[in-house]
Amino acid sequence: MRYGTEVAATYTPEDYFEAGLEVLAGSGPQAVTVAALCRRLGVTKGSFYHHFSGIPDFMQRVLGHWERQEVRRALEAWARAERDKPTEIAKLAATWGIRHEAETAIRALARTDASAAEVLQRVDDRREHQLAGLFEMLGMEEGRARVLARVGMAILIGTQQREHPVDRRRLEQMLGEYQQWVEQAASGGRPEPAGRAALGPARRSR
């Protein structure tokens, strides 16, 4: 992002959205203030108010920006999944290159903010539906596909709730195990632990 000494007028709403997501990731929803955003971009408050009426307006729009990003990432991941190894989609950057720390903050915000809750629900529902559809494409029965898609989402959300920052190596290991469950289920077998790599001791959340 173009931070620093550039003329304030050159900053777009998208620049503010990216700054907002970074503040969310680093310090949580309560830290998203006009002063914090302007400090990060190196601009005056007048620049912020040129684009937004205030923080409520900004938060509504940054959530929309985040949702659009997640839709695009999910579609790109689907397009990259090879037909002969389609379960790789479940491992793509811990489901589609998610900004885990920013998403953790959005989940926290969603507990008290109805608009954030609606956006988050749409994003999660879309991810789960996409996974289930992929598993059905493998020949899995619909009910089982939906259950395993829910398991995948539980791994993602549970990790985000438990760890800050998210241990991406550990998450990748869990998703590798999950991928094997899915592949066994698609071939008509029952999921069994792979036992190939120990996850190691749990990492304490901060």
Notes on the protein architecture:
The structure is a single chain. The chain is an all-alpha fold and about 210 residues long. Helices cover about 65% and strands about 0% of the residues.
Based on DSSP secondary structure assignment, what is the total number of beta strands?
0
N-C termini distance: 28 Å
What is the strand content? under 5%
Helix content: 55-70%
Low-confidence stretches: 1-8, 193-199
Order of helices and strands: HHHHHHHHH
Structural class: mainly alpha
Average pLDDT confidence is 83
Backbone shape: elongated
Supply Rg: 19 Å
How are the SSEs placed, and which strands pair?
Blueprint: H1 13-27, H2 34-41, H3 45-51, H4 55-80, H5 93-97, H6 100-110, H7 114-137, H8 142-162, H9 168-186
Short key terms for the protein model shown above:
206 residues; mainly alpha; disordered N terminus
